[in-house]
Amino acid sequence: MSGSVGLPVILLSGAIVVVLVIRAALVIRHEGERSRGSLPGKGHHVIDANYNSGLGGQTGQFRVPKDPDEYAKSFVPRSRR
């Protein structure tokens, strides 16, 4: 009896995997056509960050330089600048 139930489960699982692989390939192809991120430039991006744990939370803003070189410099320790 267990053999008659196992084959349909295996076939259904295989079909689901095939559909997921095809869908993933289509998404990757579609994402490759669009550029991600933002264009470099002058000034800063302002990022709003909100955190709420249910018991309290915090709100803040972060300013991130649009220039990639200036952004990279922010990771260099002050003693090395």
Describe the overall structure.
It is a single chain. With 81 residues, this protein is α+β, with helices and mostly antiparallel strands. Helices cover 47% and strands 22% of the residues. The protein has 2 helices and 2 strands; from the N terminus they run H-E-E-H. The protein has a two-stranded antiparallel ribbon. 0% of the residues are buried. The mean pLDDT is 86.
Features:
2 helices, two-stranded antiparallel sheet, elongated, alpha+beta
The average pLDDT is 86
Radius of gyration: 24 Å
User: How much beta, percentage-wise?
Assistant: 15-25%
Largest sheet: 2 strands, antiparallel
Count of distinct strands: 2
User: Strand pairing plus helix content: what structural class?
Assistant: alpha+beta
Going across the biggest sheet, name each strand in turn: 1-2
Kindly state the percentage of residues in helix: 40-55%
- Number of helical regions: 2
Poorly predicted runs are none
Which word captures the global form? elongated
